Amino acid sequence: MALVLTSREVDGVTVLELSGRITLGEGSVQLRDAIRDLIAKGQRSILLDLGEVTYIDSSGLGELVSAYTTARNQGASLKLLKLTKKVHDLLQLTKLYTVFDIYDDEASAIASFK
Amino acid sequence: MESVGEVEAAADELATEAGLDEEQRFHIGMAVREAAINAVLHGNEYDPARQIEVSLENTGADLVFTIADQGSGFDPDHLPDPLAAENLLRGTGRGIFLIRSLMDEVHFRQLHPGTELTLIKHLGPKDEKS
Predict the structure, then answer these.
(1) What is the pTM of this model?
(2) Mutation test of the interface with chain B: which of A53, A57, A72, A90, choosing the one with the most B Cβ atoms within 10 A?
(3) Would you say domain B2-122 falls under CATH 3.30.1120.10?
(4) Is A90 in Cβ contact with B82 (below 8 Å)?
(5) How much is the ipTM here?
(6) Which of B4, B30, B83 lies closest to A95 in CB terms?
(7) Where are the domains of chain B?
């Protein structure tokens, strides 16, 4: 299943819900474009909801890192919400767990941007 | 890149037939996928004239996957460490690390030209990581 992105606003935070695969050729470019669009529009608080991400490969992991650094370099903040076990395990394996702010529930994540 | 999906699906089928659980199948599928992507992208450099060669086998004791490209080769012992602080925020460079982490054995062989990766997952009740 290709990546489906849905965005909504909660208290000034853009919650970007991702559903499907983030892999080379299937979701990486969509994610990159979505983050660039949000930042270009002036959005400074971005929460990526990964609860429905079924699969991620090294390219997808790289895209998450690039999203994080792109946001940071533009003065924005990007955090992660609801990791599946697969994504959680891969972030731990690659030490990226130490890079991101990660939350299990949306209310805490939204509050953390204030 | 279609071939990458086909290789991943074939690896998953072999792992399923071997009775492996979902997590083991995910590890195998991901490692084989990463190896196939490396072969197409970095080995063959997207050159349609170059082929990748793949074999999959259940020996009874192991699942053995070999993926070979026709590229100029590389030294697997001198890759940047993706866990090092200076590399942690890089967008690339995690493929071989993931392959090594997710499989029980990984062997590299230079083919002149090309590189062959052999990925092995031990079967059996214990995860005898070597």
Answers:
(1) 0.91
(2) A57
(3) no
(4) no
(5) 0.90
(6) B83
(7) 2-122
